[in-house]
Structure formats: C-alpha cells, structure tokens
DNA sequence: TCAAAAGTGTTCACCGTACACCCATGA
DNA sequence: TCATGGGTGTACGGTGAACACTTTTGA
C-alpha cells in the first residue's frame, strides 16, 4: 500500500467589511515555533472530517465565528517546504462575514484573534500572505459577477452602504445614480418600508434587503449578475 | 504531533478537441478493485513532489502526454468515503491539449488510455463524474473570458476552426461575421500568409495564429478578453 | 456550372456613461 | 439657514446583434 508522510490542513481567509474598510481575520499563535506571530485561522483536519467541516470548526474554535459565505479557494501544495516542520498541504477557503454579528473570541490554540484592515496586515506565517493575495483578487472579481457583497452587510442596509462597499473593495469611484439604476434593474434587491438615519445629520434613507430567493429563481432563467463600471 | 491517516492524490480532467467534438481523456485501470473500469488519469503524490509535478508525471506515465494548459480545478475531500479503501483527498486539475500532438500510450498501471467524446463518457470510478462535470463548466465559462481555446488547436488554424471550437464547446450558434470582427478587434490573433484548403472542395482559407506575447502585453494594460454571444 | 467553404459591411436598438439639482433632517 | 447625506432623469455615443451576397476552389 501507499505510504505517504504528508499532513493536510485547511486555512481560511475571512473578509469583513465595516464603514469603508475591508478587514481580514488573523490569529495570533499561542504555541510552537511561530508562537506570537500572526497567521490565518486554520489547522489540521481530522481523519473522518470533511474539509468544509474542518474549516467551520477551526473558525469556531479559534475565533468564535460562523461565516455567511464559504467556498474553496485553492490548494497550496507546490512548495513542499511551506511548513518547515514537515510537509503540509493546505486547502484554503474564502469566507465572508459581517463583523458586527460576532465578538471575536480567541480560544484553545489561539492567543488572540483580530480584524486587520486589508492594507495593514502584519507579515503572516507560512505562505499565508500569498493566500490573502489570491483571496483578495477572488473577492474583487467575484464581486462583479456574483452578488456576494450582501454577505458582508446587515440583512437590511442603506443603498449608500452597498455603494460604499463596492467603491471600497473595487477601489474605484462609482456613479450613484447609475449604480442604483443597475442594481435595482436586476430585481434582486427590494425596498423595505423602514427608514433610518445614521449619524447626526442628513436625510434618512430607506433600508433595502437582498432577495436571495428571487436571485435563485433568476439563476434558473439564465440570469447573469454583472456589475462593472468605467 | 499530529497523526493523520489520509492519502493525497491528484487527478486530471484533460480536454481535447478535434473536428467538432470535445473529448475527455480516461484511463482504464489495470489493477485493484476497480480493475477494467475507467477513471481519470491521476494517482498518489510523492512525499517530496509538488502537486503540479505529480499531475504532469501521472499524465506522462499513464497516457504519454504533456498538456498545453494546466490549472488547479478544486480539491475533493468532503466525502470521506470517496475512495472505499481508505480516505483519499484528491486535488483535481483542469488541462487542455491538442490530441493531434500525441499518440496515447497506456503505461505502467494503466491498461488503456482513450479519448471519449464528452457526451459518451462511460461511468467513471470514484467521484470522477463530478470532476468532469465541474471541469466542463469551468471550460465553458473560461472560454468566454480567457483565450484558452487556442490551447486546443494547432499553432496555426483556420478561422473556421476557432469558430467551430466555440460553437461546439459553448453549444450555440455563432454569427461568423460578428465572431471574426470581435476576435480580430482584440489584436491577439494574427494572420499568417499561408493558405490551405481542407477536404475536397471549397475556397482555401488563411491560417491564423494566437499572439501570446501580444496578449500578455495587453493584460498589463487592463485588457479584458471577452467573447459572448446572444 | 455546381457544390462547398471563405471572406466581407451596414443598420438598428439598446445599454453603459456622463452629468447636477432638489429633498429631508438635525443642529 | 446651513450642513449633511438621500433621492432622482436625460441625452449621447458605442457596441452587440441581425442579416446576405460574392469569391475561390475542385469535381
């Protein structure tokens, strides 16, 4: 029979968004050679554990969170020395969460868990910088052809929140009128009858919500979500 | 230290195209429980072998081919019983090759290696049917936003070849004039001064070639390849 | 001269883009 | 009344879509 001496891990790049800033979740190691340094949440999988469950477990254990969106990003196994203890192949996952929904809670192996603005992430251990870079690209491109932005926002949000999210993540200006026109033309965002005002002044705005059911219906009819601007 | 009892394999979905038909490469097992049944080319990786090298090695060993295009497709490790001998996690790769460039040559573990038209693939072992399905979707969508079709054709090809490739893979009719106009507008396909005729009759056509260098240049200038039709 | 495949332009409709003013609220 | 953010419509140009005849070759 085959004999292999390779371990399998999962890691997650978890994005959060709040008030014009995109964040990534990192964990401070408690033990081992990399103690005190920052890495992505993740760890070794159990023998009878599906990959996806391993990610969800680690996110719960290391930071106390459950994500809104989770998909496989890619498997890192070409550099046989990416972990210098022994060979580890890591399956990286891409995740989105609304930071408001959780209070980070470092647990078990983790000394600390923290949101870092995407541009202020400390040097991460292993090849986790590469993973973040890849995930960031995926986020940017996916935002344009799949309605995943809503997984970063509250269930009910102002149009300006959605618009700022796109501006922030895509790093470009967007025309408010054209943006609203296009989003509404899809029919997957519906207006609630609630009105709120944020901050000290300004006209209150209507709250909107993402109609996931409608979106799934449209998908069956060959609908293609697509937000791109000059 | 961590103890895991999981093996890691790679598998490849290799697409070939010839005369209006899309093919997938499959291997007939020589040994083991699945002897005689068809599976995707692949196998266990070596302890000190990068994943990508493992795929290339297996393709050479099992079918005697070297591909034009290779990228990671995804990792299959949620079904812990996808291999009923013991737990195997497989990293699937997506590959393109011009079948004309090679004579398939089953080697070592393989009893036979064969091209199957995408619609006539026999039931494959493990979860390889799922892999083919996923790869097929990837091929279809990628064809529209990345110039990978050229990796399935000869270095020099007729415009009608390219057009038929798109028709075949995307399973839709394409207006010849609009297709040619759009492809040529990108400036990444250049006309050679060779003229050939295929078959017994009809006007001979000019040969064209893909200008990869030009494409890479354009990428730096934010060029976006995009072929979509009604 | 016929059959088969290559080559070629124009028109129209729609959508993406640019652009600026009024409204509601609290201080 | 002022500052702040919310809400709205139109005109133009470019691009995708539809569409048919001529050319070159071998039989």
Automatic annotation (TrEMBL), chains A, B:
Q: Where is the signal peptide?
A: none
Q: Mind telling me which InterPro entries this protein's record contains?
A: NUDIX_hydrolase-like_dom_sf (IPR015797), NUDIX_hydrolase_CS (IPR020084), NUDIX_hydrolase_dom (IPR000086), WH-like_DNA-bd_sf (IPR036388), WH_DNA-bd_sf (IPR036390), WHD_NrtR (IPR054105)
Q: Which residues form the Nudix hydrolase domain?
A: 5-139
- Coiled-coil ranges from the UniProt annotation: none
Keyword list, A-Z: Hydrolase
Domain of life of the native organism: Bacteria
Gene Ontology molecular function: any one: hydrolase activity
Protein name per its UniProtKB record: NUDIX hydrolase
Q: What is the lineage of its organism?
A: Bacteria, Pseudomonadati, Bacteroidota, Sphingobacteriia, Sphingobacteriales
């Amino acid at each position: 029979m085959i004999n292999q001496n390779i371990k399998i891990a999962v890691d997650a790049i978890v994005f959060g968004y709040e008030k014009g800033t995109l964040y990534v979740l990192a964990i401070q190691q408690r033990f081992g050679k990399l103690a005190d340094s920052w890495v992505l949440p993740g760890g070794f999988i159990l023998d009878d554990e599906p990959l996806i469950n391993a990610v969800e477990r680690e996110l719960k254990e290391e930071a106390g969170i459950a994500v809104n969106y989770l998909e496989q990003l890619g498997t890192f196994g070409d550099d046989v020395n990416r972990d210098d203890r022994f060979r580890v192949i890591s399956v990286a996952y891409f995740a989105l969460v609304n930071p408001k929904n959780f209070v980070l809670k470092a647990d078990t192996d983790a000394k600390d868990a923290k949101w870092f603005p995407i541009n202020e992430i400390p040097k991460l251990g292993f090849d986790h910088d590469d993973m973040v870079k890849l995930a960031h690209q995926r986020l940017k491109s996916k935002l344009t052809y799949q309605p995943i932005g809503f997984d970063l926002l509250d269930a009910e949000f102002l149009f300006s929140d959605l618009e700022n999210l796109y501006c922030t993540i895509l790093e470009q200006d967007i025309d408010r009128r054209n943006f609203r026109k296009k989003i509404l033309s899809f029919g997957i965002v519906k207006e609630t009858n609630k009105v709120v005002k944020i901050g000290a002044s300004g006209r209150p705005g209507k709250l909107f919500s993402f109609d996931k059911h409608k979106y799934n219906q449209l998908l069956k009819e060959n609908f293609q979500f697509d937000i791109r601007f000059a």
